[in-house]
Design a protein that fits this description.
Layout lengths: L3 H4 L13 E3 L3 E3 L9 E13 L5 E10 L7 E4 L14
Antiparallel strand pairs: 1-2, 2-5, 3-4, 3-5
Length: 91
């Protein structure tokens, strides 16, 4: 687990992301931290990223993602083998 700016030091957006973090080289977690929160704005660095809960592909930039209470928000770098570890519900 590490802050985003460790792997993306040239990307100024990665220095102010707060609770979003990298897990290994290919997974970005963006935890919901407020009670009753059901959406979160997530920043994705360069490349293509797959939202684990529904396999939607996103490009770099800010994206607002929804999550039910029992779900988490995680993105996997497109093409990474670890994506197979996530089922269709994102858990």
């Amino acid at each position: 687990m590490r802050p985003m700016f460790f792997d993306y030091p040239q990307d100024e957006n990665c220095y102010s992301l707060g609770d979003q973090y990298l897990f290994g080289d290919d997974i970005i977690f963006a935890p919901i931290v407020n009670r009753a929160q059901t959406e979160k704005t997530v920043y994705l660095p360069a490349g293509e990223w797959v939202l684990t809960k529904n396999k939607t592909v996103y490009t770099a930039g800010y994206h607002t993602v929804t999550a039910a209470v029992e779900e988490f928000i995680a993105f996997v770098r497109k093409g990474a083998d670890v994506l197979a570890c996530f089922n269709e519900r994102g858990s």
